[in-house]
Amino acid sequence: MQLRYNRSILSHQLMKHPVLKKLMSVKACPIKLSPYDGIKLYSNNSVTQDFWNMIQPAKYIDTNITGTYYRYLVAHDLFVVEFGSRYSNIPETKITINPHTSSLTPIELLDLVVVILGDYKNVEVGSWDEQLDIIEYDSHEVAKRLW
């Protein structure tokens, strides 16, 4: 069992927050390129009370989900937040952000983390996926030219 959040209600709720509204409107006009496809951030802090209150109208219980590490899953186009760890040896919160598809600058990424966690002091980057978008060449051609 896992508590999840309806995407359309969630989007409506998030649009009420000024920072998130700005970030979602930026996504509608993608102009920024990021060398990263996905960044996983970990924190032992939980989500802020404001974020928790904002997402509550979208919640529902999914009884078909078993074997998850987290009690809550908030999936949105800008981010995926998993929090409420079920085990003491994993971080309380995991945030996955794709700055390329969301057209986020590093500052906007940090703004998003602040909305979710309150600050980014206790946040660690767990992993990231590098991206190579050179249309004329595949990765083998790029490697040949670099080496």
Key descriptive features of the protein:
147 residues, alpha+beta, seven-stranded mixed sheet, globular
Write up what this structure looks like:
- The chain has helices spanning 7-14, 18-27, 49-55, 106-117, 139-146; strands at 2-5, 36-43, 59-62, 70-75, 79-85, 93-97, 123-130.
- The protein is an alpha+beta fold.
- The termini are far apart.
- The protein contains five helices and seven strands, in the order βααβαββββαβα.
- The mean pLDDT is 85.
- A seven-stranded mixed β-sheet has the order 3-1-4-5-6-2-7.
- β4 (70-75) and β5 form a beta hairpin.
- The protein is 31% helix and 29% strand.
- It has one domain (2-146).
- The longest helix has 12 residues, at 106-117.
- The radius of gyration is 17 Å and the shape is globular.
In N-to-C order, the SSE pattern is EHHEHEEEEHEH
**Strand order within the widest sheet?**
3-1-4-5-6-2-7
Counted by DSSP, the helix tally is 5
Low-confidence stretches: none
End-to-end Cα distance: 50 Å
Overall pLDDT confidence: 85
- Percent helix: 25-40%
Structural class: alpha+beta
Radius of gyration: 17 Å
Portion in strands: 25-35%
Number of strands: 7
Q: Give the domain tally.
A: 1
Give the overall shape, derived from the CA principal axes: globular
> Could you give a short account of the major beta sheet?
7 strands, mixed
List the helices and strands and how they pair.
Layout: E1 2-5, H1 7-14, H2 18-27, E2 36-43, H3 49-55, E3 59-62, E4 70-75, E5 79-85, E6 93-97, H4 106-117, E7 123-130, H5 139-146
Parallel strand pairs: 1-4
Antiparallel strand pairs: 1-3, 2-6, 2-7, 4-5, 5-6
